[in-house]
Design goal:
The complex is a heterodimer of chains A (204) and B (565).
Chain A: H1 10-14, H2 16-30, E1 69-71, H3 86-90, E2 96-99, E3 118-122, H4 131-135, E4 141-143, E5 158-159, H5 161-168, E6 177-180, E7 183-187, H6 191-199
Antiparallel strand pairs in A: 1-4, 2-3, 3-5, 6-7
Chain B: H1 2-6, E1 12-17, E2 20-25, E3 27-29, E4 35-37, H2 40-46, E5 70-76, E6 95-97, E7 99-100, E8 103-107, E9 109-111, E10 122-124, H3 128-142, H4 159-167, E11 185-186, E12 191-193, H5 203-211, E13 217-220, E14 227-230, H6 242-247, E15 253-255, E16 268-273, E17 282-288, E18 291-297, H7 310-313, H8 337-350, E19 356-359, H9 366-379, E20 382-384, H10 405-410, H11 422-430, E21 436-440, H12 451-454, E22 458-463, H13 468-472, E23 475-478, E24 487-490, E25 495-499, H14 512-524, H15 532-540, H16 544-548, H17 553-556, E26 561-562
Parallel strand pairs in B: 1-10, 19-20, 19-21, 21-22, 22-23
Antiparallel strand pairs in B: 1-2, 3-4, 5-6, 5-9, 5-10, 7-8, 11-12, 12-15, 13-14, 16-17, 17-18, 24-25, 25-26
Classes of the chains: A alpha+beta (204), B alpha+beta (565).
Chain lengths: 204, 565
């Protein structure tokens, strides 16, 4: 099928009016005193609409955004993951790989029984589905707000346990907060259980 | 079927399970094989209805302590003064649902594992009353359970988890503090106990007392503080301790070897055999991504029942060893299978009759030994194997620590006195009579043919681990562990059993039967089969004992078949 080109008038064929119209839009933005929506939440003193300094500055993401999955710690800086490998099992692209500790594996504190020897997430494989977060019985893995994960080579993008724990940091979303004398002390994994055990009378 | 018909008629009893009449034998063999009245649980099983249970195990004495198998039943009435049982108005026998004596509105359950059936009994295996009883028992068992499934090794094969899904309540009503018991107790060198997870079913106690014959375990402390324990200062250390881990319905007893190694739902299960001794216990290999994680016994009442010994169970680490032979070696220019097989075939085709000796291993499969005997017959070779003896025990462990001595004898590789010809082979080598030595899976330097003698012959060796013999080999053919190939073993009692492939062999390694097949084909012209099934059937047609038993690969099934020795 042959499409007929629209016939331009003499004025249109000059192009000068179009150029002037475009320039008008640019100048309107340039002299605008309205605050930019990009920085609305940052309370910054940018008073005019500007280009955002990406990637130094990043777009704020909405609540519920599924970014990169990281391992979180409780408020006492303890690893929460117990290496149950459910996330590894459920992960659709098989991005997660956990090495269980084996008998006598190291743990980072007294009273903890099991934690992963190695925990790797291949960020190139991850599809940000959030199944790992959903399945985790210990609430140890969360999809945080990081996006645009970049690196110089593939190996660099396989995040190991140390990296995932440091990126995840202490998590505030887990429900198991330790409340003492009405003061919320954050999540203290197993602390309540240990206290119960110490308080109980034993009839040996 | 014909054999079944000739048996005397079995006395049967008709009971109703969920309103359906079921005819079951009046007597059923108990754990010792002695006939005992069929129980409610067994009758339901025959009717295709599973009654949940923890403490009941078909191979252990009944103790009836977990109460999980509670079912509501109705009994026929006792005959009245007229000698007739009470009848309904329509003329059918009247049954009386069991109820508490002083609370007729409350149904009373009986434990299915220890209640014998009587004619006319009605079993309400899935009635609301029964369901309520199960829920109550589940709740009671879970009161002090730590619910640490994410950590627990049993998760995925845990009866507590399964029944909690099937018969449990969604939420616990328990408001008080849970009792905490010690965790990760060293019960013995191979067992770790988590007392909190234990439901005190006493399966482990009964097993070790009645099956293993070592009364090592018991329950100590009172009430909620009950826990499994050994005598203070004594270790739970007999050769059958790891079976308690298998029969433990929860994660209380865990194997140190498997503890925190891999979650069970990742494991691929392959039917296999234990190679630790001549008993040939049936096993299941649990492997993931070409790594073997554990052996578990597989039920075969003709061989090992439900059990296997610890020494056999832990005898698998060599399969994944770092120093496994993975590289084919030969003289210059021979570095691939086609070139090596051609060179060896040409060499064997050119040798004089009687100048070859073969030392096979009684740990090789029947098929490989058969092919070797074919080769030996053609070459007029002297053959023998190496004997391994140990101490037999009262249960499973056999004196013969080779897993296929019987197979080697049936194939004609060795005589009743295994290894008796090794010294004459050594003599013939030093005399210069034997010029080619073929060794499969044995280190002959430890059995009278030392490294000096090995230099005098053309040495063809197939093995899976390095040894002084493999070092001296002119042709080194890397082989496979039993977990990496298929085949059959014949145990000391003459039971031929097959095993399946669970893992991929490392590097160049190939199943020995494939290599031997090629060699025997090139040398003798044997060309009757392409697969292991064909090879087995070919062998079954030639080895007398197998021929008499009319063995076929398919006919072996999972449990094997007996041959007359």
């Amino acid at each position: 099928m042959k499409v007929e080109r629209a016939k331009l008038s003499w004025l249109e064929r000059l192009y000068i009016p179009s150029i002037l119209n475009g320039f008008k839009v640019t100048m309107r933005h340039f002299f605008s005193w309205k605050r930019s929506g990009v920085y609305a939440d940052k309370q910054s003193d940018y008073s005019a609409k500007t280009t955002m300094q990406y990637p130094e500055e990043k777009w704020p993401v909405p609540t519920g955004y599924r970014g990169a999955p990281y391992l979180v710690k409780d408020v006492d800086d303890n690893t929460k993951c117990v290496s149950c490998q459910l996330c590894e099992f459920v992960c659709p692209p098989k991005a997660i790989r956990i090495t269980p500790p084996g008998q006598g594996g190291e743990v980072d504190r007294e009273g903890a029984e099991k934690m992963p020897k190695e925990f790797e997430i291949n960020m190139l494989r991850c599809i940000y589905c959030g199944f790992c977060q959903e399945v985790c019985p210990e609430e140890a893995i969360f999809l945080l707000k990081d996006y645009a994960i970049t690196g110089e080579n593939r190996e660099e993008l396989i995040y190991d346990k140390e990296k995932l724990l440091s990126l995840g940091g202490a998590d505030e979303r887990a429900y198991d907060h330790h409340v003492q004398d009405g003061v919320d002390e954050g999540i203290k994994k197993w602390e309540k259980k240990t206290q119960d055990a110490q308080n109980q009378p034993t009839f040996h | 079927m014909a054999a079944k018909d000739s048996k005397p008629a079995v006395e049967t009893v008709t009971v109703k399970v969920d309103g359906r009449p079921v005819e079951v034998p009046r007597m059923t063999p108990n754990w010792e094989g002695k006939p005992e009245p069929t129980t409610v649980l067994q009758a339901c099983k025959q009717a295709g209805i599973e009654i949940p249970h923890y403490c009941y195990h078909p191979k252990l004495p009944v103790s009836g302590n977990c109460r999980m198998c509670l079912v509501h039943v109705a009994m026929p009435g006792r005959p009245g003064p007229d000698g007739k049982p009470p009848m309904n108005e329509d003329g059918t026998p009247k049954v009386f649902p069991m109820q508490l004596p002083y609370e007729p509105q409350t149904p009373r359950g009986v434990i299915g594992c220890a209640t014998g059936i009587i004619p006319g009994m009605e079993i309400y295996a899935s009635s609301p009353e029964t369901k309520e009883m199960r829920e109550a028992v589940m709740e009671s068992l879970l009161i002090n359970h730590p619910l640490d499934c994410p950590i627990c090794d049993q998760a995925g094969e845990c009866k507590l988890q399964e029944y909690s899904y099937d018969h449990g309540q969604p939420e616990s009503q328990f408001q008080e503090f849970k009792v905490h018991k010690p965790k990760a107790i060293d019960l013995g060198p191979r067992i770790t106990l988590d007392a909190e997870r234990c439901v005190l079913c006493t399966r482990c106690i009964r097993f070790t007392k009645d099956i293993a014959g070592d009364d090592a375990l018991g329950i100590v402390n009172r009430g909620s503080y009950n826990e499994i324990s050994t005598y203070p200062g004594e270790a739970f250390d007999n050769n059958y301790t790891l079976n308690t881990v298998d029969i433990c319905p929860v994660g209380a007893l865990t194997s140190n070897d498997f503890r925190f190694q891999m979650r069970v739902w990742f494991l691929k299960e392959t039917k296999s055999l234990c190679t630790g001794c001549g008993t040939g216990c049936n096993t299941t290999i649990g492997s993931r991504e070409n790594k073997m994680y554990r052996y578990e016994p597989r039920q075969n009442d003709a061989v090992n029942s439900d059990w296997m010994c610890d020494s056999g169970r832990l005898d698998y680490k060599w399969i994944g060893r770092e120093d496994r032979l993975a590289k084919l070696k030969g003289p210059k220019g021979v570095s691939t299978w086609p070139s090596a097989l051609k060179a060896i075939s040409d060499h064997l085709a050119g040798v004089e009759k009687g100048t070859v000796a073969i030392v096979a291993s009684a740990r090789q499969t029947n098929e490989e030994l058969f092919l070797l005997s074919r080769l030996a017959k053609h070459l007029g070779a002297t053959t023998d194997s190496v004997a391994r003896k140990g101490k037999a025990d009262h249960l499973l462990l056999a004196e013969d620590r080779n897993c296929n001595t019987t197979g080697a004898q049936l194939a004609g590789i060795t005589t009743k006195r295994v290894g008796s010809k090794l010294s004459s082979i050594a003599k013939e080598i030093s005399a210069g009579k034997v010029k080619t030595l073929i060794v499969f899976g044995e280190d002959v330097t430890k059995h009278g043919i030392d490294a000096k003698l090995l230099k005098k012959v053309t040495l063809i060796v197939s093995d899976i681990l390095p040894s002084a013999t493999t070092k001296a080999a002119d042709y080194l053919l890397p082989g496979c562990a039993h977990a990496e190939k298929r085949g059959t073993f014949t145990n000391v009692k003459g039971r031929v059993q097959k095993f399946m492939k669970a893992l991929e062999p490392p590097g160049d390694a190939l199943p020995e039967w494939e290599v031997l097949h090629e060699l025997v084909h090139n040398v003798t012209g044997l060309d009757e089969f392409r697969s292991i099934e064909g090879l087995f059937n070919c062998m079954a047609g030639e080895v007398k004992a197998f021929k008499d038993a009319e063995l076929t690969w398919a006919g072996l099934g999972d449990l094997g078949a007996n041959v007359k020795l």
